[in-house]
Amino acid sequence: MPSVYIKTYGCQMNERDSEAVAAQLVAKGYSLAPSETVADVILLNTCSVRDLAEQKALRKMENLAAEIRRDRPEVVLGFMGCMAQSRGQELIDRLPDVDLVLGTQKFHRAADCLDEIIAGRRDKIVDVAEEPGSEATIREHLLNGNAQKSVTAYVSIMQGCNQYCTFCIVPYTRGEERSRTIPDIVSECRQLVAQGVKEITLLGQIVTSYGRRRFGRAEPPLGQDAQQRVPAQGKSPFVQLLDAVHEIEGLERIRFTAPHPKGYGDDLIEAYALLPKLVESAHLPVQSGSNRVLKLMHRGYTREQYLVLIEKLRRARPEIGISTDIIVGFPGETEDDFEQTLSLAREVEFDQAYIFKYSQRRDTPAADLPEQVPQKIREERNQRLLEVINEIAAVKYKKFVGRRTQILVEGPSRKNPARMTGRTRCNKIVVFDFAEREHRGRLMDVKITRASSFTLYGDPVIPD
Ligand code: 5AD
């Protein structure tokens, strides 16, 4: 059977999709190639969120066509995911070496498409059609295929997005929002825990919208009793899902990403008090500190509402780690707007922030706004914001030195395999020396001895 190599660009959702495709192919008898140079099939799982990500994948495919295909003409080359979805046939017109273009609702069809191509029944396949029910098709995991069992796993709870932020291409690449049922998600989580997973991250474009569109429809919502169409005790479907996942015995930690500030209700804040497995960590994309820009972005909240939310979260869990996404140089962003973003960053004191220079995306409303910010200014603002974010994070990370904190041991450090890494509940990476391999998957206490940018170093605390 052929071997496959999958390279992934972009977000955790893409990582998860690639893992599911790999699992599907392994189940069909494919092997996983250690590198692209020896693979029979090379798939690029692409990202469209910024132009840079698209250019990287296009250049990569050009190189694969020129270098690998030249020597081994039988190698199958494919694009999957967001750029495949948004560009479709255009990708083959531009790069005729590409054999397969598979959209975001078709990952479960990867093996069948490859079979057709490899058997010579079809020359090229472009499949980017909508597929009802595709949200429930991303459920295979590769845990048993890994030499080392995974301690953490992603579980996809929904697909698509209906928010239509004016800068964002995702509603067009990922389609309408569709949620899986609670029993379906819980059974996948149970299986993972039975295989040794200790921490689950629930994934969706906007997890706080989970299940909302299914309520009030004729079908039994979320696979539960029809009476439960009204959220149980005023709880949103997402919090009901958290309650259900929390019940799973053997599961130690629950994370989720990403919530939307506007959907972050009091029931979700209360969940922190009620569900001890829910870790003290929230990734809350703010995008801008200026109300004028937030409105132009179609975000649905104000700076003040965002700040109130942060305050509530910190009241519920003072230790909570808060990260965010921020866009600089959105069309029309003035120096004054940008300074409000700087002041918001100072006020919130984020533990971590991902800063993005605004990138014009095709078919999005903001791409046509007249006042595009010059590239030079986008870069300059990126730099200035980065300095503020780094400065604040350095102070925050230093505060951990001398403290004792619980980590989940994930495995050897990527940079230095002689060391081990784990994560605190508030999502900080801790690197430490001691620990037998069998400590993987264990919760242990460490004493933090040193902090560098976005990493803590520590020593395990040995119980007396
Ligand atoms: N330009 C720059 N950044 C963007 N993001 C989404 N669309 C764009 C764009 N057109 C960022 C947002 C989002 C993150 C995943 O990517 O900050 O939260």
Keywords:
binds 5'-deoxyadenosine; single chain; 464 residues
User: What gap, in angstroms, lies between the N and C termini?
Assistant: 53 Å
Task: Indicate the overall shape.
Answer: globular
Number of strands: 19
In the predicted model, the low-confidence regions spanning at least 5 consecutive residues are 216-230
Taking all residues together, what is the mean pLDDT? 93
Query: Beta fraction of the residues?
Result: 15-25%
Strand arrangement within the widest β-sheet reads 2-1-3-4-5-6
Task: Output the number of helix runs.
Answer: 13
Architecture overview:
With 464 residues, this protein is of the alpha/beta class. It has helices at residues 12-27, 51-71, 81-87, 90-94, 110-118, 170-174, 182-194, 237-246, 266-274, 291-297, 303-316, 335-348, 375-398, and strands spanning 3-8, 31-32, 41-46, 76-80, 100-102, 125-127, 152-156, 158-159, 178-179, 199-203, 253-257, 281-283, 321-328, 352-357, 404-412, 420-424, 429-432, 443-452, 455-460. A 6-stranded parallel sheet has the order 2-1-3-4-5-6, with helices on both faces. A 5-stranded mixed barrel has the order 15-16-17-19-18. A 3-stranded parallel sheet has the order 7-10-11, with helices on both faces. Strand 1, helix 1 and strand 2 (31-32) form a beta-alpha-beta unit. Helix 12 packs parallel to helix 13 (375-398). It starts with a strand and ends with a strand. Residues 216-230 have low confidence and may be disordered. The site of 5'-deoxyadenosine has 12 residues, from strand 13.
